[in-house]
Amino acid sequence: MPGFHVEHFGCRAARADGEAVSDRLRAAGLCERQPQTADVVVVNTCSVTAEADRAARAFIRRTHRSNPEARIVVTGCYAQRAPEELAAMDGVAAVVGNSHKGLAPQIVLGLAPRIAGGENFVGVQSLLTGGNIPGQAPIWVDDRFAHSFIEEAQLAPGAQTRPNLKIQEGCGNRCTFCVIPQTRGSSRSMPAAAVMKRVEGFIAAGGNELVLSGINLGRWGRDLSEPFDWERPSLAGLVRGIVEQTSLARLRLSSIEPMDWDGELIWLMKEYGGMRLARHAHLPLQSGSDAVLRRMHRRYRPWHYIEKVMALIEAAGPELTVGADVMVGFPGETDGEFEETLELVQALPFGYLHLFSFSPRPGTRAWALHAEHPVPFSKVEERMGALRALAGEKSLAHRGQFAGRELNAITLHTPEELERRGCTAALTENFLPVELEGRLAANRLVRVRVSGLNAVGALEAVLAEGQYEATAMSVRSKSVPLKSNSSPVSLASA
Asked: Is the pLDDT of residue 178 over 90?
């Protein structure tokens, strides 16, 4: 049977794109293989940093060396930003930007006639919009992003126990360091009816935990005209609709910008946190310095950020796991400005941090700022070291408080090394990694008792005595009453 491989780079939303492509290719009769034996290899790229670009190029070169007959199709953010650069690489058969990612499955089949059904594909060349260079791979890229959603894909628990449902694409913010507006366009939302249909399909397929994701998730619905539940479409309204109108056992929210955690969304954490809504909030920080945030054109100040985190903890309780992205070495960052970031991180109960150094991206305002005021590499490394140490301390402190306590969790696909030790990989409802004693299949909702932390900081746990398994069936057997959308005054302005 003809085979394909999709290699993922980048964020949760990009992963959701790649999974949707995989779903369409499987439906066309292809089987999944490793890149060394696949007939077609789809490289789903990221371009948020120069390192992401390098990693994608390196993978393309390795794949072409190990499997020179494979047709390599490159898509994603790097494909949108620099298509000609990728089209010139050996082994690349097509470059499909985010603007045409919805057509990627058809293009894959059309460019590889030996793939099942490919010989019957008609119209690929009529979709070609780029100025192709003779001898290079064809390019599908434009700036309209009319074909950027792959809405046909239906999610089910499989390779990913907790798949991402991407409900929003693009970003209307203009942060000076970011290429996302160039590579994904302005904010666009999947209609509410389509979202609900996919949630119901996931439940019907036996799914227990679903992750809502997007490039700028908090902006979902703002571009939609039709009302949802007789109100203006909003992420909070959609979350409430999923929790109250479906039997999904657990919903998790991926990264949401600080200013988009409005009062109603925070109040939902109080209503459903720890039950149907995961007590996990990721708020990108980038910097704790007001001056740096202004140079970044971020739409909040440090005190706004602190208010949002504290409001979330007040709503969901101290079991809430809070995560953040922090950037080091933004152009002109002084020692004093970096100390402000350290102080803010120290002051808040973060459960984890995603740390990365500034990477100048062509076409952004920060590209010019970097040329004018670069931060020396030695300074960046020194600051990264200080933040890594602090992040490690914060993570251990947060996880350590759960020793001896019981938590809800979902079992995952267990790595071989862990299986050999007779353990199961799991993730708690509040986003903590678990090594669970005993062998269990993936996609089971379980209650675990935490005994401590292992050497790598994961929770060690056993099934709780007389353990309660919160199966989707038990949730479905209950009547879920609709509740008022009103929020308490104390959180309304949060």
From this structure: yes
Instruction: Look up the CATH number of domain 164-400.
Output: 3.80.30.20
The pLDDT-based confidence of 189 (bands split at 50, 70, 90) is very high
Q: In one letter, which amino acid is 183?
A: T
Question: In the chain, what's the furthest Cα-to-Cα distance?
Answer: 68
**What is the third-level CATH fold of 3-140?**
Rossmann fold (3.40.50)
pTM over 0.90: no
What's the token pair of residue 250? 């657990």
139-140 and 92-97 as β-strands: parallel, antiparallel, unpaired? parallel
**Domain map of the chain by residue range?**
3-140, 164-400, 406-463
Q: How much of the chain, in percent, has pLDDT values that exceed 70?
A: 87
What average pLDDT does the segment 324-335 reach? 98
Q: Which two tokens stand for residue 313?
A: 């903890």
Residues in the chain: 494
- Contact criterion met (CB below 8 Å) for 63 and 41: yes
Answer for the pair 412, 433: CB distance below 8 angstroms, yes or no.
no
Record: fold of 406-463:
OB fold (Dihydrolipoamide Acetyltransferase, E2P) (2.40.50)
**Half-sphere exposure (CA, 13 Å, Cβ side) for 144?**
7
